[in-house]
Automatic annotation (TrEMBL):
Role of this protein: The RuvA-RuvB-RuvC complex processes Holliday junction (HJ) DNA during genetic recombination and DNA repair, while the RuvA-RuvB complex plays an important role in the rescue of blocked DNA replication forks via replication fork reversal (RFR). RuvA specifically binds to HJ cruciform DNA, conferring on it an open structure. The RuvB hexamer acts as an ATP-dependent pump, pulling dsDNA into and through the RuvAB complex. HJ branch migration allows RuvC to scan DNA until it finds its consensus sequence, where it cleaves and resolves the cruciform DNA.
GO process annotations (BP): DNA recombination; DNA repair
Annotated domain remarks: Has three domains with a flexible linker between the domains II and III and assumes an 'L' shape. Domain III is highly mobile and contacts RuvB.
Residues annotated as transmembrane: none
Protein's UniProt name: Holliday junction branch migration complex subunit RuvA
Cross-referenced NCBIfam families: ruvA (TIGR00084)
Subunit composition and interactions: Homotetramer. Forms an RuvA(8)-RuvB(12)-Holliday junction (HJ) complex. HJ DNA is sandwiched between 2 RuvA tetramers; dsDNA enters through RuvA and exits via RuvB. An RuvB hexamer assembles on each DNA strand where it exits the tetramer. Each RuvB hexamer is contacted by two RuvA subunits (via domain III) on 2 adjacent RuvB subunits; this complex drives branch migration. In the full resolvosome a probable DNA-RuvA(4)-RuvB(12)-RuvC(2) complex forms which resolves the HJ.
GO molecular function, one term: ATP binding
Amino acid sequence: MIAHVRGPVAAVTLTSAVIDVGGVGMQVMCTPSTIASLRIGREVQLATSMVVREDSLTIFGFASTDERDMFELVQTASGVGPKVAQAMLAVLDPDRLRQAIGQGDLATLTSVPGIGRKGAERIVVELKDRVGVTTIAASGAPAWRDQVHEALLGLGWSARDADAALERVAADLEPGASPDVSTVLRDALRTLSKAR
């Protein structure tokens, strides 16, 4: 997979940019906000996601890895392909998209061209536990707890499983303790593997 491209911008269109990578012009499909930030001749680095089809290889470029990660995540929902995923990020920034999915905000999701009410409901059902919007971040919890929670989500655990594991691990800690994040993560993973 091509994780990023870096080089001077050779050309810009309404939907894509050509980045000169070692003498090869790589066409990268971009959202309008990413396109707006590009200037011909200026060096740029874009996080990328490559979509392989029988008849094409398409590279999608993003201003940040967070955008790229959301692009890839939303495509795991049924009926969401790269074009709809790109439209979602053209309309909503990653944080707003994450929040809309996590809170089941169908009105916001249906503001994206190509997503109807049923599609929005399906996206919420399939991705709600995977977007990382939880009550932990809003509760003023210790930083180590947020870090371990995010790490567990990144490893593919649902928000509910991550919350439960953190509750079990936190019960064994001294009140007000600031434990080592890697130690707590290891303990949480042990707890989750026993629960399976």
